[in-house]
Amino acid sequence: MIVFYNNKHLHHQGKNELFRGKMVPCFEVADRVERIMAELHRRQFNVVVPPDGIDDQVADVVNSIHDPHYLDFLKSAWTEWVALAPQNYA
User: Fold this and answer.
1) Of 21, 37, 56, 62, whose Cβ has the fewest other Cβ atoms within 10 Å?
2) Per-residue confidence band for 88, with pLDDT thresholds at 50, 70 and 90
3) Measured between alpha carbons, how far is 80 from 90 in angstroms, rounded to an integer?
4) Do residues 58 and 50 touch, judged by C-beta distance below 8 A?
């Protein structure tokens, strides 16, 4: 299994997320990535750290495993979510 990782994951520290129709404290925290990466390395997974942005290798893999409609949704989901109500960004 190939795992793609980017150091920008370390900066992901959400405040809230939508869970079962309710806003709750965000489950994803930056230090969780470090624990996951340590376990992947321990299990000797092939971890690929591409340069910033999505290079051709990452794009090819993503496009081969995800439905194009899902990828289109992801491209605009955050912008649309914030447009619904500015407090969604807070």
Assistant:
1) 21
2) low
3) 15
4) yes
